[in-house]
C-alpha cells in the first residue's frame, strides 16, 4: 500500500508539473495552465463571478488610459445560441466593443483585446471555462447589434464565452499543443 501511494503521488506530481510549467505564483499558474475551453456544462454562472470578471476587464491597460471599451453581458440562451454553435444554457457571452470611429487595427482594437484577455484569465482563475471568439463578430456587427443592445456608436471587436466546464475536462486532455519557446522567441544581444 505504501509503495502504491508513493507511485500515485509521484505520478500526480509529474502530471501537475509536465513541461516545467509551475511557478508557485497563482497568476502565472493560471496563465500557464489555461486553455480555450470547448466543452461547457449547463450550470449557470453566478452574478458575483460575472461582476468580478467584468471588474478585471475594466482594469486592463489602454492607450492613453482611454478605456474606450464597452462590455455587453448577454444571458439570453436563445440569442447566444443564434451566435455561437453548441451554446450550453447557463453560459454567458460578453461582447467587447470599441468606438466605431477607431479604425480596425488601431489602438482601440488592441485595448479591447487586452480587456478581453484580462476577463479570460479572470474566468479561468475562478475555475470557469472561457473561450474568445472572433469569427462571429462580422455577423454580429451586421445583423445583431440592435438585438444585443450594443451601445450606439460602438462595434463589437471580440466575444468572450464564460461557463462551467464539463466534468473531467482539463487542460491536459483538451488543450491544443503549444509551440516551443525556440519556435517563437528570438533573442538579440
List the helices and strands and how they pair.
Layout: H1 2-16, H2 26-33, H3 47-58, E1 70-74, H4 77-81, E2 92-99, H5 107-125, E3 129-133, H6 137-148, E4 154-163, H7 171-174, H8 181-184
Antiparallel strand pairs: 1-2, 2-4, 3-4
Helix pairs in contact: 3-5
What is the structure about, briefly put?
With 189 residues, this protein is of the alpha+beta class. It has 8 helices and 4 strands; from the N terminus they run αααβαβαβαβαα.
- Strand order within the widest beta sheet: 1-2-4-3
Helix content bin: 40-55%
Radius of gyration: 19 Å
The strand count comes to: 4
Tell the overall outline.
globular
- Largest sheet at a glance? 4 strands, antiparallel
N-to-C CA distance:
54 Å
**Unreliable segments (pLDDT under 50, ≥5 consecutive)?**
1-20
CATH topology of the domain at 35-165: NADH Oxidase
Say which CATH homologous superfamily of the domain at 35-165 is assigned. Answer: NADH Oxidase
Supply the helix-strand structural class. Answer: alpha+beta
Report the average pLDDT across residues: 85
What CATH first level of the domain at 35-165 would be assigned? Alpha Beta
Element order: H for helix, E for strand: HHHEHEHEHEHH
Amino acid at each position: 500500500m505504501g509503495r502504491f501511494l508513493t507511485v500515485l503521488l509521484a505520478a500526480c506530481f509529474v502530471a501537475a508539473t509536465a513541461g516545467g510549467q509551475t511557478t508557485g505564483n497563482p497568476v502565472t499558474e493560471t496563465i500557464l495552465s489555461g486553455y480555450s475551453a470547448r466543452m461547457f456544462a449547463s450550470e449557470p454562472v453566478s452574478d458575483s463571478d460575472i461582476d468580478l470578471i467584468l471588474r478585471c476587464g475594466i482594469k486592463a491597460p489602454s492607450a492613453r488610459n482611454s478605456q474606450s471599451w464597452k462590455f455587453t453581458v448577454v444571458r439570453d440562451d436563445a440569442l447566444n445560441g443564434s451566435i455561437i454553435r453548441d451554446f450550453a444554457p447557463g453560459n454567458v457571452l460578453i461582447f467587447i466593443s470599441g468606438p466605431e470611429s477607431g479604425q480596425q487595427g488601431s489602438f482601440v482594437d488592441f485595448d479591447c483585446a487586452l480587456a478581453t484577455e484580462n476577463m479570460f484569465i479572470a474566468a479561468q482563475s475562478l475555475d470557469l471555462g472561457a473561450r474568445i471568439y472572433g469569427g462571429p463578430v462580422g455577423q454580429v456587427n451586421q445583423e445583431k447589434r440592435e438585438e444585443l443592445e450594443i451601445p450606439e456608436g460602438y462595434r463589437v471587436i471580440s466575444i468572450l464565452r464564460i461557463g462551467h466546464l464539463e466534468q473531467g475536462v482539463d487542460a491536459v486532455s483538451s488543450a491544443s499543443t503549444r509551440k516551443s519557446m525556440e519556435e517563437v522567441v528570438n533573442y538579440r544581444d
